[in-house]
Amino acid sequence: MNTIDLAALRQGDRRTLAKAITLVESRLDEHRSQAQAILENILPDTGNSIRIGITGVPGVGKSTFIEAFGLHLIGQGKKVAVLAVDPSSPIAGGSILGDKTRMEELSRREQAFIRPSPSDGALGGVAQKTRETMLLCEAAGYDVILVETVGVGQSEYQVAGMVDFFTVLMLPGGGDELQGIKKGIIELADALVINKADGASEGLANTSCQHYSSAMSLLRHPSFWTPKVMTCSALQLINIDTVWDMVQEYQQEATSNGAFAQKRASQNRDWMHQLINDMLLLKLQQNPTIKALLPRLEKAVEQQQTTAYAAAKQVIEEL
Ligand SMILES: Nc1nc2c(ncn2[C@@H]2O[C@H](COP(=O)(O)OP(=O)(O)O)[C@@H](O)[C@H]2O)c(=O)[nH]1
Ligand SMILES: [Mg+2]
C-alpha cells in the first residue's frame, strides 16, 4: 500500500477513500504511521458533517431504515456514508456486509459510501478505527455519517460517544428490557424511533410511543434537548422525513447554543484519554523487563507472598 492522493480524497474519489480507510484499519506499524500522517493532514477538512448513531436489536430494521433514510438524504442533496461498529463478527457476518441486500439501492448510489465494520484493530479496537474512518469520510465531502451498531459488548456506548445524535430503533410493543435493549442505552438516546409502525402493528407502535414519551419526560437528560419519541415504518417509508427533520432541528439548536461544538470537543478529549490508556497498556505489555517480571509477580500474588497493590506498583515503577 503506497501513498494516498490527498487531493483525490478531498475531491471525494471513492477508490482513494476506500484505500485510505484500509490504511487506517491496518495493524502494521508502518501503515499506522502513514495513516496518522494522512489524518493530521486532512484534519482541517473534517467535522463538516452530522454524525448519527443508530442502534437496535437484530431484526428491528436498522438496515431497512438506513436504506430508506439514506435514500431520503440523497434526495435532499446529501452525500451519505454508512459505517458499522460490530465487534462480534468483524468480517464475514458484519452487520452491514451480512445484509447488504437490504441496502441494495443505497449501495448502488454514487452519493452513498458503505463500509462494513473493521476487524478488531490493535490500538483502541473497532471504535478507534471507526472514528478515524469518520474523519476520512468527512474530508471526502460526506455530509451525513450514519454509524450503525448491533449492540454487542460495549459498542452502543462507544457509538454514542462518537456521534452528534444517537438514535435507538425499537419494536412496537414490549418494554426495552423485553426487547433485549441494554440498561442505560435508553438514557443515552437523543431519539427513540419505534419502527414497523405499519399494518397490524401500527396501533401497538402508537401505544409504545405514548408510553416512551412519558417515560422520557421523567428521565433527567443532561442537555438542552429532551429526547424525542416517534414512530416510523422503514419498509413503507412512513415518517422517514420526520426523523430527518428532527435531526436537523437538533443540529440547528445545538449549533446555536454551542452544545454541538462542546459535545465534539469533549468527545475528542475523552478519545485522547482512552488512547493514552491504550498506549500505556501497550507500552507496558511490550516492555521486556516487565514482560519478564510479570509471571513472577503473578505467582507471588497468587501465593499471597505479596499484595496485588505492591506488585502493581513494582510494575509501574519499572515503566
Ligand atoms: N413491517 C415492517 N417490517 C420491517 C420494517 N423494517 C424492517 N422490516 C423487516 O424486518 C426484518 C429485519 O430488518 P433488518 O433491516 O434486516 O433489521 P436489522 O437486523 O436491524 O438490520 C426484515 O424482514 C425487514 O423487511 C418496517 O418498517 N415494517
Ligand atoms: Mg442489519
Describe this entry's structure for a reader.
There is one protein chain. The protein has 319 residues and is an alpha/beta fold. The chain contains 14 helices and seven strands. The protein has helices at 6-10, 14-25, 29-42, 62-75, 95-98, 104-108, 125-139, 155-160, 185-188, 202-218, 240-257, 259-286, 288-302, 308-318, and strands at residues 50-55, 80-85, 112-115, 144-149, 165-170, 191-194, 228-231. Strands 3-2-4-1-5-6-7 form a seven-stranded parallel beta sheet, sandwiched between helices. Helix 9 (185-188) links the parallel strand 5 (165-170) and strand 6 (191-194). Helix 2 crosses helix 3 (29-42), helix 4 (62-75) crosses helix 11 (240-257) and helix 13 (288-302) packs antiparallel against helix 14. The longest helix has 28 residues, at 259-286. The radius of gyration is 22 Å and the shape is globular. The structure holds guanosine-5'-diphosphate and magnesium ion (MG).
Secondary structure: elements and pairs:
Blueprint (H helix, E strand, L loop, with lengths): L5 H5 L3 H12 L3 H14 L7 E6 L6 H14 L4 E6 L9 H4 L5 H5 L3 E4 L9 H15 L4 E6 L5 H6 L4 E6 L14 H4 L2 E4 L7 H17 L9 E4 L8 H18 L1 H28 L1 H15 L5 H11 L1
Parallel strand pairs: 1-4, 1-5, 2-3, 2-4, 5-6, 6-7
Helix pairs in contact: 2-3, 2-7, 4-11, 13-14
The protein binds guanosine-5'-diphosphate (GDP) and magnesium ion.
